[in-house]
Design goal:
The protein has 12 helices and 14 strands. With about 290 residues, the protein is an alpha/beta fold. The protein is globular, with a radius of gyration of 18 Å. It starts with a helix and ends in a 6-residue tail after the last strand.
């Protein structure tokens, strides 16, 4: 259980709290009161007039508190995406980044959203439809190292559900079977190389890279930018150290960066420690300012 001191320390690091502590605290109180009396999805506002039907959960709470679950990541993606680009949202959840990217790449661009959880996929589909987005393609798939099927452990907090590691024979959580595909296999049938990929896979990040060798080997001129979120604990669940993600990207010619809490980037070679929010940016070309 999280101690009150630890919770307060995390709250003080939130941009919305630093900007207005009273408003930040009142929003958190109202979030809890609202769900105590109403279990229907809550319609939350994103930028650019977008709306999200949201279930109760930590990621959705952050959208309500801050406007975006991770403002620093959203700010980077807004800089990186331009009209006509293709964006892949791997672990799209209810569609926050798919919706935002849809606006940023415009009608000539494309968004491919991948989400394996059936109930969450319904929210994703609903949000794309209700915002009348015609440049977003939806895939009820988990991205992994190969095509097939795999068990997925379903967490009470939807954004923390994860593909069951192959070396785990039993799990106390309920589980479902979900279809899987590798990035390389998708590329064979899809034909359109992404310009930017965002990966949020609760520990399956290394498997995703293992199934993306064709993409990783692309030349500097066409290689995509990777945005990979990770937690050390979830990496351990799959039997690898998070430093292996950085090492693999560097092996294929990428320069890698940590995303710092205020959105600044720091080359991983300049720091041996992980920032508080763990996001890797990897690119073979200079990044947009």
């Amino acid at each position: 259980m999280t101690s009150p001191r630890s919770a307060l320390s995390r709250l003080r690091q939130r941009p919305d709290f630093q900007q207005s502590p009273i408003l930040a605290i009142s929003r958190r109180i109202w979030w809890r009161i609202r769900w105590a009396f109403n279990t229907e999805p809550w319609h939350l506002s994103l930028t650019d007039g977008l709306r999200l039907a949201a279930p109760r959960g930590g990621a959705c709470a952050l959208i309500y508190y801050q406007g975006q679950s991770e403002p620093e990541v959203a700010a980077f993606l807004k800089r990186a995406l331009r009209a006509g680009m293709t964006f892949w949202d791997i672990g799209a959840h209810i569609g926050e980044y798919s919706l935002l990217a849809s606006q940023w790449v415009g009608s000539s661009g494309h968004v491919e959203a991948f989400e394996p959880q059936p109930e969450i996929f319904e929210f994703l589909s609903r949000n794309v439809a209700e915002n009348k987005l015609t440049n977003v393609a939806l895939h009820r798939l988990a991205i992994s190292e190969r095509d097939g099927c795999r068990r997925m452990s379903v967490h009470a907090e939807p954004s923390q559900s994860f593909l069951s590691p192959a070396n785990v024979t039993a799990d106390l959580m309920p589980s479902i079977e979900v279809p899987t595909a590798s990035i390389d296999e998708i590329l064979k049938s899809h034909g359109r190389v992404p310009n930017v990929l965002k990966v949020d896979a609760e520990g399956a990040e290394k498997m995703i890279l293992d199934g993306a060798i064709t993409l990783l080997e692309l030349s500097e001129a066409v290689a995509p930018i990777w945005v990979i979120e990770f937690e050390p604990d979830t990496c351990v669940r799959f039997g690898y150290h998070p430093g292996e993600l950085v090492s693999k990207l560097i092996h294929f010619g990428y320069t890698t960066y940590w995303v710092l809490p205020k959105g600044d980037l720091l080359e991983t070679s300049h720091s041996s420690s992980y920032p508080l929010r763990r996001t890797i940016i990897a690119s073979k070309r200079p990044l947009p300012c």
